[in-house]
Model the fold of this input.
Amino acid sequence: MTIGQLRVLYLRVMRESIFERAAQEYDRWYELNPYAYLSEIEAIRPHLKRGLSIEVGVGTGRFALPLGIDFGLDPSVSMLKIAKERGIKVIKGCVEKLPFKDNIFDNLLLVVTICFLEDPNPALKEANRVLKKGGRIILGFVDKKSFLGKLYLAKKEKSRFYRHAKFYSSKEIIDLLKEYGFKIELITQTLFKTIKEIHEVEPVKEGFGEGGFVVISAIKEKY
Done:
């Protein structure tokens, strides 16, 4: 095993153990910040189309449930237990090696999951494999070029969850998706204030460059 492979393994274990130990704390964030949470849901909603859907990195099911997503996959048993209690059909597994056959999903959602991967390439390759031709990958993330991304980066080392995260710009996500044969379909953005300043559901706008939370969906065209 190379040094690079050892680092990927180490960070994967760290990622899983953090969320395993702190499932309740993670879930409580949505209770404490309801309008930011609802704004993110509304930014994701227009990207989903009819068909069989899965959220990879489903966590406690906070997004899968209101968005009507069929299945949720996560490496954390503690997270999956809460998601299951919310009525999500859960599967234990990791994004780098999805336990599904080829070409079966119409929608595959990842909300900030990509930020916790040392190498996003295996995840995007797997997403392409399990999506039907014409299926959609949907990525929600904090844009590192936005005011919110810069704020998170400044406080990264003090955060229990984001200490091991890697933030991306919208341009970097777009380039990654294109590299794996995806055609960009829709980009939306929300969260135009700091989390503490949000006291109502934020608007959703197309494009990126203003909002802290960006959602990009892209269609599988080949492979």
User: Anything to note?
Assistant: The first helix runs from residue 3 to 21. Residues 1-15 have pLDDT under 50 and may be disordered. The chain has eight helices and eight strands. The longest strand covers residues 131-142.
